[in-house]
Amino acid sequence: MRKRLTTRWGAAGIGALALALAVAASPAYALARPAEPIPPAGLTGLEPTGANMPTVGGNLGNQHYSGLTQITPENLDRLAPAWRTHVSAVAPASSHTGQQTTPIVIDGVIYLDTPSGGVIAVDGVTGDPVWKWENTVYGLSGTRRGVSAGDGRIYTLAGGNRVVALDQATGQEVWAVQPTGPDGEDLGRVGKVATVYFDGIVYAHAADGDRGAVVALDASDGSYKWHFFGGPKRGELFTGLDGVTFDASATWGPVLPDGTDCSEEGGATSWIHGAVDPDLSTYYMTFGNARSCTSSQNGSLRPGDNLFSSTLVAVDAATGAYRWHYQSIHHDVWDMDNVHPPTLADIVVDGEERKVVFYGSKSGHQFVLDRTNGKPVLPVTEKEMITDSRQAHTATQPFPEQRLLPECLVWEKLDPANVPGDPWRAVPNYNGYQPDADGDLVFNPDSYVAVDEPFLTYPDGHVGHREGCMYDPQWDVPILSTTSQNGGGDWSNHSYSHSTNLVYFPYGTNPVAHWNGAAANGQRAMGQYQTGGILAYDASTGEVAWQNHLGTDMSHGQGPLTTASDLLFVGQIDGRLLAMDAVTGDVLWEFQTGSGIAAAPVTYEVDGEQYVAIFAAGSTNPYGSSVTQGDSLWAFKLGGDYITESGSQEGPMTAPLSIRRPVSGAAVEGSTVGNTVLLARSSRTADTAAARDSVAQNAMQPTHLRVPVGTTVTFRNPGAETFPNFPNQKPHCATQFFEGEFNARLQPGETYQHTFDRAGEYFFNDCTDPRPTGKIEVYLTPKDQPGAVSFERGTLDLGSGTGLFTGVNGKVKAKFELPAGYTYDSGAVLLTPLSSTPIEASKVTANKNRIIVQFEADAVDNNVPTGEVTLTLRANVLNAAGVQEQLTSAATVTVTK
User: Fold this and answer.
1) Coil, strand or helix at 284
2) Which of 239, 333, 762, 829 could make a disulfide contact with 776, Cβ separation 3.0–4.6 Å?
3) CA dihedral (17, 20, 23, 27) positive or negative
4) Is 761 in contact with 775 (CB distance < 8 Å)?
């Protein structure tokens, strides 16, 4: 066991260090490079990690697999927090929250990016800070995804497109550079992607800009070694291992008449770190979608395959010399690039050992390629696709024969019994799928999609219209398809288990509508459910072994970690850290951290004890501001005895997530606008040509209407009586989904009225063009019933028999007396002081004028403090007239733990 780095800085010491760094110059000023590169302790190529986890991928092959076995399925009930550190509170303190970084661990010290964009080193046994680095001279980069280590240094990114080396023991800055090409060439925005260290070289990836390179720097001083662009220079030639030479720029079409070269104007960027095969001395990197020339969704000006966009490229790790490439999407106009960290493994296929790289994410594909030459190891078919003559599409796209996620959307019937329905269900009216009288979604060839038909060519035997399938073409009107620029596996890391020979693939479900003017590379359909989960597939065959649709998006940093004891650890954006059975996918253990997780767990060993750590800092994708932000680094071990401020080991439940894609615009109280929604208008008041028959997403006015239960809402297609100068000229719809409550088709001047008699969210959109979407929020005003609720015991003993949070058992029971004639309807929950998320009842027994409600004690424990606590029971009921109401009642209890 190597000796841990345990030089610690108190608050004053860290502040002094920060001050010293603030005035430090960027070039190297202290430490000389060792004679030979020194890798960090525990660094391996494709071997399992052990006591250390020195890269954000675990090892250089990004397997995120550990050989540690002390924590097992059999002793998970003893796994509990050992400590928690609020990294932003460590001096120099800040109030920053939110970060996507995955930690690394070397000799018992954890290194990670802070929410502000700095770097902190934390003792893995105690949680005490060892050092913390921030820079106030050239600033920090915001979103960060991890650091790397080597030669006794930690490598990170900072403001002004800087790559920075810090002394591993002290956090002192050794060098800081702004990488440029040999002739001062701009290499793009280096500020987000985790760095990678191997054999004296630091690899940095540029992302977020129109064009960005992967650049290799000398780890001793940050000097330039080589770079590789996803969008090649005009006339640049590449020669592969097969001896074939080609001009990659020719795949972007000719230079435009105004001199614009699409490959150089934007090209493609590399969104995530690469992988290294030390034996082959090869660096593997993924490049994203083509982004240049007017729009990423308009390919008309860049005919051809557009290399190296949406491509995995293998180069010599030392020189950057091109070796081979594999393009997963030709001529990408959907932002469906496959950008997760490439994962390497040696596996057996058809009785033969093969060196492979697993590649693919957003598309729901997984290409299993020979990493020596880029050829598919598992079968891939070039499948004929629908093409649009305006888009310069290629006729085919590569599809692995074994697919992980559905290839097409599900056009599911609108029905209250069908909610939420299939995870890949489509929002109605898109692609011309409109509800009939029974609520079935049926293709209407005369809908808005008819405008594209003269330009479309269908493969032989095709149904003859776009069904919302992978790579359906679009032009100026929205076409919904799966998965999306925010779906599939996106950029979360995958894990390969040596024990199970399974690859673990986290995913999100988030269908998207594309058209040339769509912002953010496509509009995720408002009102759809944004969910996700994790699946495992056999590395040797590609067949899915199991799938667990956990219910939250898992594609934005929630990468899994597997261990040799066949456990899988993974975090969720709702704050829960899960331990799952790596063989079956069953959830065996869970822990609430109190803030969203957009990072992968790590595991390490110190003095014979195995730890699991997770950074719970929050993020935004795809749930925006509804995600609970934080700055907590948690560590767990068997018998961990850390207690939070509430007297519990867990944090409180995070705030409710906006699982359904929200509409645009703030909520408007119905009484202020006469409980009336205007269809297809970009303004309630503007009598202008630009405002009428609008197809903007905010063209339901208001987009978010709030009304109490029992309100009658009027939907109006405003004609000349409303806007005398520029009335609407087209018919418009209010199609409610997914319950199918109403589907009104109105001519200009016509109205439809609907009375909402139950609380809930009612989304609706337009059949003329589905982009305008609104929501009616129907609410109940709680009616207090003093003294109506009582708990079975005045003292709630939430203590654990084992001293660990897993030992909190039993029930919390309450009795709610209802007024005469009232009956229970739904939604019994407990409101607690420490969380804004209500606790759902595990059982409700309805008797005459009374309900008995039961909650799990362990669900209550982390959401209440000790001492006198006021708890509120809330339930929806039906009054004597059958009208829905909401009743609440509070009682004070004494909580002990």
Assistant:
1) strand
2) 762
3) negative
4) yes
Torsion of CA 823, 826, 827, 828, to 10 degrees: 40
Between CA 612 and CA 567 the distance in angstroms is 12
CA dist., res. 827 & res. 261, Å (int): 59
Which tokens belong to 526? 């408002």
For the record, the structure tokens of 755 come out as 């009375």
521 is written with which tokens? 């590379």
Mean pLDDT taken over the chain = 94
**Whole-number Cα distances in Å, 386 to 394, 453, 470, 783:** 9, 11, 10, 57
State mean pLDDT over 484-501: 94
729 in helix, strand or coil? Answer: coil
Give the lowest-confidence range in 197-206, 293-302, 718-727.
293-302
Q: If pLDDT is split at 50, 70 and 90, which confidence band does 34 have?
A: low
Rounded CA-CA distance 353/261 in Å is 44
Reported as type and span, the H/E element at residue 22 is helix 11-22
In this prediction, residue 265 carries a pLDDT of 84
Longest C-alpha distance within the chain, in Å?
87
- The dihedral through the CA atoms of 658, 661, 667, 669 has a sign that is negative
Residue 396 structure tokens: 């085919």
Which string of DSSP letters, residue by residue, matches 303-342?
-S--TTTTEEEEEETTT--EEEEEESSSS-SS-----SPP
The answer for 468, left when phi > 0, alpha when psi is -120 to 50, beta otherwise, is left
DSSP string over 52-78:
-B-BTTBSTT---EE---SS-GGGGGG
Amino acid symbol at 54: P
Q: Which residue do the tokens 């950029």 mark?
A: 491
Residue 594, pLDDT above cutoff 50: yes
Q: Shortest CA distance to 714 belongs to which of 683, 684, 744?
A: 744
Determine if residue 58 is left, alpha or beta; phi over 0 gives left, psi from -120 to 50 gives alpha, anything else beta: left
The reported pLDDT for the residue numbered 267 is 80
CA dihedral 155→159→162→164, nearest 10 degrees, is: -30
**Residue 748 amino acid letter:** P
Cis peptide preceding 483, ω within 30 of 0 = yes
Closest by CA position to 398, among listed 436, 425, 441, 368: 368
The two three-digit tokens of residue 435, written as one number: 């509800």
Backbone angles phi, psi at 141, to 5 degrees: -95, 145
* Burial letters 704-724, b for 16+ CB under 10 A, else e: bbbbebebebebbbbbeebbe
Angle of CA points 260, 266, 268, to nearest 5° = 140
Q: Are 246 and 225 in contact (CB under 8 A)?
A: no
The answer to whether residue 25 scores a pLDDT higher than 90 is no
CA distance 696 to 289: 26
Q: How far apart, in whole angstroms, are the C-alpha atoms of residue 602 and residue 625?
A: 27
Q: pLDDT confidence of 11, banded at 50, 70, 90?
A: very low
CB-based contacts of 560, cutoff 8 Å, min separation 6: 64, 493, 494, 495, 504, 506, 534, 568, 569, 570, 600, 601
Q: Are 819 and 885 in contact (CB under 8 A)?
A: no
What ranges in 302-460 are assigned the alpha helix state H?
A: none
Instruction: Please name the residue that has the structure tokens 């519990």.
Output: 648
Q: What is the DSSP letter of 49?
A: B
Distance CA 77, CA 588 (A): 9
Tell me the C-alpha distance between 727 and 168, whole Å. Answer: 68
**What's the pLDDT at 705?**
98
Give the DSSP H or E segment for 265: helix 262-265
| Complete edge-to-edge strand list for the sheet that includes strand 322-327 | 275-277, 282-287, 311-316, 322-327
The pair of three-digit structure tokens given for residue 797, joined into one six-digit string: 């003993």
Here the tokens at position 332 are 């990408």
Cβ distance 371 to 343 under 8 Å?
Answer: no
For residues 593 and 587, the answer to whether their CB atoms sit within 8 Å is no
- Peptide bond before 702: cis, by omega within 30 degrees of 0? yes
